[in-house]
Amino acid sequence: MSQAKREQVVSHLRYLRRELREIQLGINDDGLLPEPGELRGMMAQMEALLALVESNTKVQES
After folding, report:
1. Which residues are CB-neighbours of 13 under 8 A, at least 6 positions away?
2. Whether residue 56 has pLDDT greater than 80
């Protein structure tokens, strides 16, 4: 994986980790579930990360 793509993946993972940690704290501390829009945003980030990883896999297979 190229260095730039690796940095993108790391950045996406850090963002998702931070968001998931905030959701966990909200659930544990307040018993509040996240907003649907917040979950949709995280799903979009996860889909972008998956697309990035899959595009790299296809290049390596060729």
Report:
1. 49
2. no
Mean pLDDT, residues 16-26: 89
What is residue 33's three-state secondary structure? coil
DSSP reduced 3-state for 24: helix
Reported confidence tier of residue 37, pLDDT bands at 50, 70, 90:
very high
Compute the distance between CA of residue 20 and CA of residue 14 in angstroms, rounded to an integer. Answer: 10
Query: CA separation (Å) from 6 to 12, 26, 44, 54, 62?
Result: 10, 30, 19, 13, 19
Residue pair 48/12 in contact by the 8 Å Cβ criterion = yes
Separation in Å, CA 55 to CA 23, 37, 52:
29, 27, 5
Of the chain, the percentage scoring pLDDT greater than 90 comes to 5
